[in-house]
Write a structure and sequence with these properties.
Elements (H helix, E strand, L loop, with lengths): L10 H7 L7 E4 L6 H9 L5 E6 L2 H7 L9 E6 L5 H7 L5 E7 L4 H4 L33 H7 L2 H12 L4 H11 L8 H11 L2 H4 L7 H11 L2 H14 L1 E11 L2 H16 L3 E3 L9 H6 L7 E7 L3
Parallel strand pairs: 1-2, 1-4, 2-3, 4-5
Antiparallel strand pairs: 5-7, 6-7
The structure holds S-adenosylmethionine.
């Protein structure tokens, strides 16, 4: 993709799913480039509130000026959505009317074909320090640098299989461990070259870059993305006001499965209803305009009225 600007996925579908009333308190747990948040703000009146957060400090800094002229009260936070419960309690909103999460990352955080990367080592296309943390690396248990330089091959292969179904998981894991003999693996570019050299030529000429799955798996592991999502869903459900809506857009099957099961369980526990028996997916037009949308799935849960 040569356009490195984020295009919001399922914009109207996700905002409509929140069923916003002008005086609602709505939370956008993944502010990003503020596409959803700006449309949410349009639905809210002066008495309404938008609380928007993002783990990436740059997203929050860049969004501030976009909200200068909107009607509702807007509160922006640099925070991880796994902390949504404590955050809402701390700022005084015990119950809210709607919560949206649009998972994953923005194009500019990864760097596109011809762009500079986002500086975090997410992209195999640019040479940056290997890190892959959305927030401050000091607050993470480990970074991609640790995986590449300190983990055993078995553990590396396990995350490659589990988080991205990489079919050459073992070959790649062994190659990473072997490459340490040449020195420390410092950058995303170095790691990408090690992966390219480890896989069969046919894989190098396939539909996706051979490092795509390895980078995805490391990113999920470093950021504990599935753990964060599980915690987020539980806390979000606990903070929904009667009839409040939780809408989540996912981009891969592991996440979608987690959302589907959590919503079903919440319904079985009598907390409310799954609004989307089948996930809402982007139209053909949207996918044609934004290929990144092709794997998106939106699921919506509605809290019961007590
Ligand atoms: C797909 S983008 C959201 C785009 C946004 N909906 C828009 O319309 O511009 C996902 C955003 O979620 C953020 N993010 C990912 N994981 C997060 C987490 N655990 N907590 C908070 N933000 C997170 C990323 O930094 C990224 O900016």
């Amino acid at each position: 993709m040569s356009d490195t600007h984020h295009i919001t996925v399922l914009l109207h579908e996700a905002v409509d799913a929140l069923d916003i009333q002008p005086s609602d308190i709505i939370v956008d747990a993944t502010l990003g480039a503020a596409g959803h948040s700006l449309l949410i703000a349009e639905h809210l009146g002066k008495g309404g509130t938008l609380v928007a957060l993002d783990a990436d400090e740059k997203a929050v800094a860049q969004a501030r000026e976009k909200f200068m002229k909107v009607a509702p009260n807007v509160r922006l936070w640099n925070a991880n959505f796994r902390e949504i419960g404590p955050l809402l309690e701390q700022i005084g909103y015990d119950k809210v009317d709607g919560i949206l999460a649009d998972l994953g990352w923005r194009q500019e955080q990864f760097g596109g074909d011809d762009s500079k990367g986002g500086g975090k080592g997410f992209s195999f296309r640019v040479d940056e320090p290997l890190r892959m943390t959305y927030g401050d690396p000091e607050s993470y248990a480990f970074t991609a640098h640790d995986i590449a330089n300190a983990w055993e091959a078995d553990s590396i292969a396990t995350i490659l299989r589990g988080y991205s179904e990489e079919k050459y998981a073992w070959k790649i894991a062994q190659a990473i461990v072997a490459a340490r003999a040449e020195g420390v693996i410092e950058t995303s570019g170095q790691l990408a070259r090690i992966i390219e050299a480890a896989v069969p030529a046919s894989y190098r000429h396939g539909g996706i870059h051979p490092a795509t799955r390895t980078f995805q798996a490391m990113r999920i592991a470093v950021n504990d993305e599935l753990g964060a999502l599980e915690t987020f869903i539980a806390q979000a459900l606990a903070h929904l006001a009667p009839k409040g809506r939780l809408a989540i857009i996912t981009f891969h099957s592991l996440e979608d499965r987690m959302v589907k099961h959590a919503f079903r369980q919440a319904a079985a526990d009598g907390k409310g209803d799954v609004v989307t028996k089948k996930p809402i997916i982007p139209s053909d037009d949207e996918v044609a305009q934004n290929p990144r949308a092709r794997s998106a799935k939106l699921r919506v849960f509605s809290r019961n009225d007590s």
